[in-house]
Each structure stands twice: as structure tokens, then as C-alpha cells.
Design brief:
Helix content is 2%, strand content 53%. The protein contains 1 helix and 13 strands; from the N terminus they run ββββββββββαβββ. The strands form 4 sheets. Strands 3, 6, 7, 8, 10 and 13 form a 6-stranded mixed sheet that branches. A 3-stranded antiparallel sheet has the order 1-2-9, with no helix packed on it. It has a two-stranded antiparallel sheet with strand order 4-5.
Length: 179
């Protein structure tokens, strides 16, 4: 049995793909979605939230849009990994989120900054992926509170990427992407 049921609603404009995801917790444990993307802390210690962003991985045959912990690319050195803040959903409950993807799609993650679309475009299929983990008794007590541009948010940092689970959905459309 899967832990999270993920549904996606999308609509397209000429310059963007608009998406809404709905995650329903099917498990008997609280689920923590890694779905609140953010930048680095400012001098005041507050994190800017990227509420409408998604990470973009462009492969040979498809584009993966995601909200999850991203791996640090090989030969990339970072001072600190970027771990998204979390949304908690109790058993049987649902959480929703929205995103906007500017078109054409270009690669983007906390470690790869978005660039201009100067390369040839290719039409590719799309997958949306959401990272999460299931909590146990006492998990909430391990969460840290972070000051953000939208108030306090909870996070688990450090968090081993190998402990992250993912759920994904193929989207019924193709988009132009820079390869």
C-alpha cells in the first residue's frame, strides 16, 4: 500500500505551466512533505520562501518537476545542504500546494541557478515528484522552527536524503524544455 496519494491539476498558458498538487496521507502515521522551498537565510536570519517554485530536472526523455530534498550534484561543494521546510499531514488528512513553471523549462535546483533559454528546445513529457517521510511518536519534537518571509515554518535539518521517500505522477502533457 502506498503512503501518499498524489493528484495533480494543471493548466497551461503560453508562458507558463500552472499546477496544483493534492497529497492525501493514506498511512497510519503523520507524513511530513518536503514541499516548502526556500533560499538562504538573510542577515537577519529569516529565510525567503519560494512559494510558487518547483525544482526542474531535465532528462533525455522527460522533465521532472519536484518539491523534495535535491541531491548535491557531483563535484559541487556546498557549505550547507538545502533541506525544504515541511508540511505535516496527519493520517487521513490532505495538503495542497500550487506552483508556476515559466516556459520554456530550464534546469533549476538549490545548487543550479536558473539560466536563460539559449539552447535548442525539445518537447518532453512531465513528471511531478513530491518528497516526504513518515513520522513516528516523538518526531514533532525533533522539528526545528525557522523564521521565514511568511512566519515560522518547521524543518528537519540535517535530514539524510536516503531517508526521504518520494511519490510521483506523470502529467498528461508535454512542455518545451532547454536541454
Amino acid at each position: 500500500m502506498k503512503d501518499i496519494d498524489l493528484k495533480i491539476q494543471i493548466s497551461a498558458r503560453s508562458d507558463a505551466l500552472l499546477g496544483k498538487y493534492i497529497a492525501h496521507n493514506l498511512s497510519s502515521q503523520p507524513a511530513f512533505l518536503f514541499d516548502i522551498l526556500h533560499g538562504e537565510a538573510s542577515n537577519s536570519g529569516s529565510f525567503e520562501l519560494f512559494e510558487s517554485r518547483v525544482y526542474v530536472e531535465i532528462g533525455q526523455n522527460r522533465v521532472t518537476l519536484s518539491r523534495k530534498i535535491m541531491p548535491v550534484p557531483p563535484m559541487t561543494f556546498v557549505e550547507k545542504r538545502n533541506v525544504p521546510f515541511v508540511t505535516r499531514i496527519l493520517p487521513g488528512e490532505t495538503a495542497e500546494g500550487d506552483f508556476i513553471l515559466k516556459l520554456p523549462a530550464v534546469s533549476y535546483s538549490p545548487y543550479i541557478r536558473e539560466t536563460e533559454a539559449n539552447s535548442p528546445l525539445k518537447k518532453l513529457s512531465i513528471v511531478f515528484e513530491l518528497g516526504f517521510f513518515l513520522g513516528k511518536e516523538g518526531t514533532e519534537a525533533l522539528a526545528k522552527r525557522y523564521k521565514t518571509s511568511a512566519g515560522l515554518r518547521y524543518g528537519f535539518d540535517p535530514f539524510p536524503i536516503t531517508s526521504q521517500k518520494t511519490v510521483s505522477v506523470e502529467l498528461p502533457t508535454e512542455i518545451d524544455a532547454v536541454q
